[in-house]
Amino acid sequence: MTWAIDPTHSSIEFSVRHLGISTTRGRFRQFSGTVEVDENGRAGRIEATIDAASIDTGVEQRDAHLRSPDFFDAANHPSITFRSTAVRPRPDGTLQVAGELTLRGQTHPVTFDVESAAPVIDPWGNRRVAASASGTLDRTQWGLTWNQALELGGWLVGEEVRFALEVEAVAPPVAQPIAA
Q1: Residue 135 carries which DSSP code?
Q2: How far is Cα 152 from Cα 159, in angstroms, rounded to an integer?
């Protein structure tokens, strides 16, 4: 069964070191995705698409630079995609999700940890499930190499990007029998 990610109750956030002394945070405002769930409620295939131009750090000038060819090149690569290749349960009840992340036309493997909650029925009768995921990636693997050396050493922008996902997914409605 395919569950749809509910973007109004989900978030994709990231953080990266700035000047080596602080952290800049941001998020992507537009994304979609699906989670295949087996008859026992276990997650299988996961797919997500992020609108690269929806990046939001709270500073329009910085966001425009991040959308430019120096970083995401959103005009030529409007989507960031993820497709899982394996979802492995761990003894502690969490999941390890491996997959392929495509950004700027380059695809590389990524792995991250997921903590999920049991499905619930919301007040409107919809079945929902939630998960939290986190991980890190090296932005330079995808060609996001723009940087500026600092006078006293170090770099303006860190290479390691930390990400945190909070995802709610909704099952398709159960078909109601038609009364005769």
Answers
A1: E
A2: 18
Residue 180: its pLDDT value, please? 58
Amino acid (one-letter) located at 113: D
Q: CA 97 to CA 112: how far, in whole Å?
A: 5
Alpha carbons within 13 angstroms on the beta-carbon side of residue 74 total: 13
The residue ranges of every structural domain in the chain are: 2-170
Q: In angstroms, rounded to a whole number, what is the distance separating the alpha carbons of residues 13 and 108? A: 20
CA angle 72, 84, 102 (to 5 degrees): 20
Structure tokens at 77: 């690569």
pLDDT of 172 over the 90 cut: no
Name residues whose C-beta falls within 8 Å of residue 174's C-beta, 6 or more positions apart in sequence: none
User: Which residues sit opposite 86 in a β-bridge?
Assistant: 98
- This prediction has a pTM of 0.88
| The two structure tokens encoding residue 91 | 């003894």
The helix/strand count (H/E) of the chain reads as: 1, 12
Domain 2-170 fold is Lipocalin (2.40.128)
Sequence-distant (≥ 6) Cβ neighbours of residue 167 within 8 angstroms = 5, 10, 33, 130, 131, 132, 133
| Tokens linked to 1 | 């069964």
